[in-house]
Records
---
Amino acid sequence: MTAAGQDGRRRGFGPRTAAVAVVLVTVVTALWLRSPSPPGPAATVAATVVPADGSRLATGPTEVRLRLAGTPDTDEAHVSLTPADGPQVPTGASRRDGTDLVVSVPALPQGSYTVAYHVWLTDGRQSTGRSVFAVGAAPLLPPAAVVPETGHQHVGTDPLDGLLLVLDLVLLIALSVILLRRPRVVTDPEDPPAR
């Protein structure tokens, strides 16, 4: 509630205070909604990796396949292939084949390779792990001996999210302008209006 002070100005909760409150509530709500942490721990499921863990192949595979107990979300699937003696091998985009996640790989020379993966399923469960295979006569290294040089990247803002963020910004600016406009001066009801 507002009250007039001795100098005639209104005191208390005015339009500027309301605008600041709206902006603060909007920012806190937006940060809370965009929080990357899930509401609770996700259930994990096992995956079978092809080529199998510990396998020795005469020639390099053309793809890495993860057999999962659910439908993988290709936008939230991260698979890296790292040789024992070099940087990560560039792989193709993830694709779904039933409940399998498939990633194409280039021709691989002789060596030991680690497949590291983190895949979210469409039902909210996830699968994470590592698997090692060798091509040719190369020694088979344990997964812990190979550390990927870079982490994985999550997909950024999709077009609909971007559009909604811009719309939110426009509405916030419009609301702020409306609330910050100079209020009309209220005249004393006993004074006759000026003509």
Note: The chain has two helices and ten strands.
---
Amino acid sequence: MANKLIKSNLTGHRDISGNGGGPLDPGKYATKQELHDSETRLSNQIALLEAHLDTKFEKTNADLNQKMNNMDAKFNHRFDLMDAKFDQRMNEMDAKFDQKMGQMDTDFNQKFAFMDAKFDQNDIRFEKVNTHFANIETEIQMARNSMIKWYLGSSIALVGLVIAAIHYLM
């Protein structure tokens, strides 16, 4: 059927000289059977082409899905690496922070113990000063008592001398 003409209405065929109604030239025009066979072959080829395209699409889709899965796996792997690195850095920072806080706590405890010792020394000094003041007050009180006793003793002795002198003179 290669290079044959297809006539939609096969009635009223006229040849070049204008005579009509004769049979069609089978070498020049396609028959109904040839058209039907060509249509069947084209349908089969279209079906094969569709199947081939479906196969290509499914293969391409599978390849794309595989590539997407590979990309997801790479992304997840990189994300896991980044997450692990982040966790490691956070743990290092926590360890440094804990170390600095421990050092600060130790320094604070040492300074607090030093200040506590100083306060204890000052308390001891204040107790000594208070004891000294108490001793001084006791000595002052004893001196007052001694002065009163001396004054009374001297007064009594004077009164006794005056009485003895009055008695002697009389």
Note: The chain has a mean pLDDT of 84.
---
Amino acid sequence: MAASARANCPLPLCADPVFLDNDTAVISSLRDALMAAMGQDIELVQRRTYQEITGAWLDGSVDAAWTCGYPFLQHRAHLSLIGVPVWHGKPLYQSYLIAAADDPAVHGCVARAGEILM
């Protein structure tokens, strides 16, 4: 749908797959916060995988998505970055590597706990 045809319609925005269908309170709060920040109605479109979200971006069925940076890096020639997370006042992204404490496969990682890995 062309942007002019969507002028009076909610912005279709894909939500990160981490937001589960059954967590309606979180999804509702997210939608309300985004609508307040953007000053317009938003239709949160949920997909199960990052591949499905990326497909929706590329086929034009959504205008934007809240996702990790990897799909953007893969398809930066076809997408525009409109926002980044701010962590401790800087545009940084933070992730956690989580594993069972007694898993021998991650023993070396546990020894490096607290390090910044790049």
Note: The chain has four helices and three strands.
---
Amino acid sequence: MTDHASIKDTIEFMLKQFKPERYAYLVVSTVSFLLLLICIVLFIIENSMSAKNLGYVAGMVGSGGAISYTTSQLLRMWRDCIDILLQHIKEHA
């Protein structure tokens, strides 16, 4: 029973340690998603291709990259926790 408690404590510790980082990534992802939506709407409203529209395209590409990076970091944190759990299961199987 102590093995289950220790693995639970380890995962809870990791989640608490990653909490500020997770929230930062979630905020960046949310802001980037809103920027992406704004750029898409403004790009659609403008009918002609101009230097202003190229800025919207750059905003879409940049915010898409930020969303990809922050999401990958969030998934990496969860993968680390799951790897610890799977390692524990393999050791006690």
Note: The two ends are 14 Å apart (CA to CA).
